[in-house]
Amino acid sequence: MIALTPTRAATSASVAFLKFRTISDFQPHLDDESYLTPLTYASATPYDSANIENHAGEERMVGLCRNVVVMGVCGVGKSTVASRLAARCEGHFLEGDQFHPPENVGAMAGGIPLTDKERWAWLGAICHGIAALNARDAAPVFLACSALKRSYRTLLRDRTGPLAIIHLDGDSAIIRQRLHARPNHFMPPSLLDSQLRDLEPPDTHAEAPACRLDVARSLDEIIDEAERFCRRHVASAGRSPSGEKPSRQQIP
Length: 252
Ligand SMILES: Nc1ncnc2c1ncn2[C@@H]1O[C@H](COP(=O)(O)OP(=O)(O)OP(=O)(O)O)[C@@H](O)[C@H]1O
Ligand SMILES: O=C(O)[C@H](O)[C@@H](O)[C@H](O)[C@H](O)CO
Description:
Belongs to the gluconokinase GntK/GntV family. The chain has 10 helices and 6 strands; from the N terminus they run E-H-H-H-E-H-E-H-H-E-H-E-H-H-E-H.
């Protein structure tokens, strides 16, 4: 059984899996594939681009994202970065691995890469998780999720709205070393090669806003740069230490 109870310390960010403890909370329909029904995020959440565009003269939300995916192959630091970023930006942290059914975890633990079909079901469940958090309040969601292929990211965007992408990437030797050094994780380092084969790095124009951050840098440097990216592209992404509102794009 995959452990679904919280394993990380809560921070000032909302840590989503403290609230949603079981996979069934998020994937009640996997058997009949109705998880593919539209989520209608605009009607289910306060993020309604039609309304926002009518607020001429006020802060313009168009172009800003509600959700952020921290993506990349296993061991690049997705969970570490996304959870710290959520704390910095006063958002929710969503751990993509929490949405894998036990069969997926079992396959990976046994050294078998996931298929597209297995990933579609998993991504569908993640979309429900994002939508649930978006419906709850206006805080941004920081998702740690491999999202290796462009089609996976398209699904996330189609079902949950504008998506900012932070791609953690770099020297595979560094990533492999970190995987070997990481204790108590179901993902075997042997799966890194298949993850690298599946990886379709984001097209920073076609999939904008997207950025690539090198895993060779220190965690602090990565978080600082990721935070700057989020302040430019993510609605309500954090406040200054003085408690000021986050800066947003203005209508010229
Ligand atoms: N920039 C960094 N410098 C040094 N160590 C790092 C850095 N980023 C992550 N790590 C370490 O690398 C390991 C892997 O990080 P983490 O578990 O966050 O990766 P992940 O991408 O979420 O992995 P997975 O997809 O397999 O769950 C952890 O032990 C983490 O502390
Ligand atoms: O798409 C995938 O193949 C999976 O999401 C993996 O990336 C794992 O979940 C993750 O790496 C766990 O360590």
